[in-house]
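Appendix B. Worked example

We walk through a single record from start to finish. Start with the input: the chain for Type IV secretory pathway, VirB4 components, Nocardia otitidiscaviarum, length 482.
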Amino acid sequence: MTTKIVSVSELSHFGTRLHWDYELADEPAPVPVAPPRRPLPKRRRVLDRAGFYEPRPEGGATTTRQAEALNLAISRMPSGHEGVINGVDATSNAPIALDQFTAYGQDVSNINVVAIGDVGKAKSSLLKTVFTTRTLPLGRQVIVIDKKRQSGRGEYSRVADAVQAPSIVFSTGGTGGPRLNLLDPAISLQGEHEGAEYRPEGQSQLVFAVVEDTMGRTLSETEKAATTNALSLVTHEAVAQGHEPLIGMVAQRMLYPNDGDTDVFGPLYKEEARLWGRDVALALRRLAETDLRGLVDQPTTDDVRAALEHPLVHFDVSQLPDSGPALRIVMTLINTWLSNRLAARSSRYQQTEMLVEEGWHLGEGSTGLLLRRNMKLSRGLGLSTVSAFHHISDFSLESPARALMQEAAIAYIYGQERYDDAAACASMYQLPAGSVETIMQLGQGQCLVKIGSRDPILMRHIRSPFERYLTDTDGAIKGRQG
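Next comes the structure step. The output line below is what the pipeline stores for this chain.
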């Protein structure tokens, strides 16, 4: 058996580049052994006391006030002792224990987390370990929206297999795979949610967001009124008949209304109201027949409901196209569906984490606004949203994604090669002087951890050998598995 020798050069001061191999540093380095020394000559005790071998120090008188200097400073853990082990402080090698739930109320005011950094800086490794495998033993439920593809599957499939969690693979085209109904009764604000203090977005707001993304504009008040009316009629009829309402039914009801459907708008507008929902109905029909066919236009399948009971819920959306509304709609639907499901079970005090790695999808359309509104309910739902982004400059100042980054109480800032990107991170999180150069020098697996208003911590993420196997994504490049 051969031993790999890892060369480790720690930081001499804050901001100096670490010469450290992220892939090999988790293996124990050999302990250096000093060469044998010849025995020292025997010292005679009488001569030693007389100061024959070296000058004998003489003690001096002192007081207890002067003795305070003898109590040397002991450095404390940079992040406290409560939480999940994230890694080690790169300047002192002290362990960093941090968890958004235990830090709430002490160091942070919310439980949302963000990771920002260039491609290949090991953001995914952090999310797969610290916020997935290391938190599952704490009795939490982890929801993963997996967009990145790896060897024909979602990147988190290996983690899901390790904990025996079923992967819910979404694809368009009516292939008969898992389906999540856009109008699932679990999203309704009736029943268990009635009178609750925290009320997530309901079906109407979800349908508005989906249609606005599809049409590329904001709905008018008349269109919203017509949509809400048709949704209410279809839902009540579906419940009475014992089946789930579908978006195709809503589109059909708006295009072919029954007598009396628009009476709710009064005698002056009931005839005109038949035309209010025309564009919305056509958009919903297009989604049901083309863009979202076989995805969210049918009743929720049993495998989706069963998977939601597992501690790790893996939504594999890597097969959905980047262009078009399918991906954004599914991400919004999953977030809303889970938020309402958690609200119905809030009496159990269950903590939940939702991981969204490809966070740039959240910055497009009204789905980002919907997610941001639900994030504001995180305290009541016990839902922590953990998202990852590449560059702040990828989003405009008005983008919902930028707002998500700003509202995160804990930020992991990984290396940025461009000065503008590093400066944007330093400005957004109010980092001290010199942080821009530090961010640009960070290597793989190294980051600045910003916890609330505290000074940043220079952290080195540490993984176990098994975690390195779970987070290995270089199989396609290196031409090997594992």
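Two observations about the output. Residues 183-291 form one domain. Confidence is low (pLDDT under 50) at residues 3-18, 190-200.
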